[in-house]
TrEMBL record:
Keywords: DNA-binding, Transcription, Transcription regulation. GO terms for molecular function: DNA-binding transcription factor activity; sequence-specific DNA binding. SUPFAM superfamilies: Homeodomain-like (SSF46689). SMART domains: HTH_ARAC. This is AraC-type DNA-binding protein.
Length: 279
């Protein structure tokens, strides 16, 4: 899975990076999973379809009743069709300079708020729907006052969201200019019980797979594949012992592609099969 540098892949060959950039994204494939290097903070105004994003420490899924403000960084995201045979969203990217200018102009001089999650969920309403409808990359690219229009549209949505969400949104905006990076162990241990593969966790750590393996072995004194496998199997055993779940309910979440492989791995580790617990 290649890494997509966004929004750079949306720029025309002769187009210079902008402080604010709008892109209309459409997709007709059933599911697209992407490794994304997001170099600018981004609004994702989802109109048709569903979107799931894996971050270093958490994940979020939204439908077309919600939009996302995403912090720049290395993320994994999955875009899915809904009942319609299309996925459609409008993306608005903005630079840190533009954000800093806005905060200086309209907000209090607060200290950067350390937000645990690199996203902010926006509940769409009639005003936001109208705002989304007013966005079009073709309009802004052809208009002689496009830069001025974009600046006004950016301030419009930011001011509306400040009014809608108050201090929680203001603090989140300040957190976007923080340079802190999640520690290696925090990233690893936040994804132990996910179904992400090693290379996907390595990507979230901003490392190649080989570098990730070396770093992991140095930190944990054990190969990552074995360590994560044992952690997930132990978690699976605890879930099965709870009595509410069966192996068929959890094998995908534990990183296994089929029930048979999960059952074999489980029996190899514990000496008995998952069904011995649930029967």
């Amino acid at each position: 899975m290649p890494i997509e540098n966004i929004p750079e892949i949306y720029f025309n060959n002769k187009k210079e990076p902008q402080d604010i950039f709008v892109y209309d994204f459409k997709m007709t494939s059933d599911v697209v999973k992407s490794k994304v290097n997001l170099s600018m903070n981004m609004f994702s105004f989802l109109q048709v379809g569903k979107k799931q994003v894996h971050f270093a420490n958490t994940s979020i899924a939204v439908n077309n009743k919600q939009s996302l403000l995403l912090k720049k960084g290395n993320w994994l995201w999955t875009e899915l069709l809904d009942t319609d045979a299309i996925y459609y969203c409008k993306l608005v990217f903005f630079s840190e300079k533009k954000l800093t200018d806005f905060l200086s102009k309209y907000t209090n001089d607060v200290k950067p708020y350390q937000e645990e999650e690199p996203y902010f969920v926006i509940e769409n309403d009639d005003y936001i729907a109208a705002f989304i409808s007013s966005l079009s990359s073709s309009t802004f690219s052809k208009h002689s006052f496009s830069d001025a229009l974009l600046a006004l549209k950016f301030e419009e949505i930011m001011l509306y969201l400040l009014n809608k969400y108050g201090s929680s949104f203001e603090y989140y905006l300040h957190s976007l200019i923080s340079k802190e990076v999640s520690p290696f162990k925090n990233v690893v241990e936040s994804n132990v019980y996910s179904n992400l593969k090693l290379e996907e966790i390595a990507f979230l750590c901003n490392m190649s797979l080989s570098t990730f393996k070396r770093h992991f072995t140095s930190e944990y004194n054990e190969a990552p594949g074995k360590w994560i496998k044992n952690k997930r199997l132990q978690k699976a055993k605890e879930l099965l012992e709870g009595g509410e779940l069966k192996a068929s309910d959890i094998y995908l979440d534990m990183g296994y592609n089929n029930l048979s492989n999960f059952s074999v791995a489980f029996k190899t580790k514990f000496g008995f099969s998952p069904t011995d617990i649930t029967n």
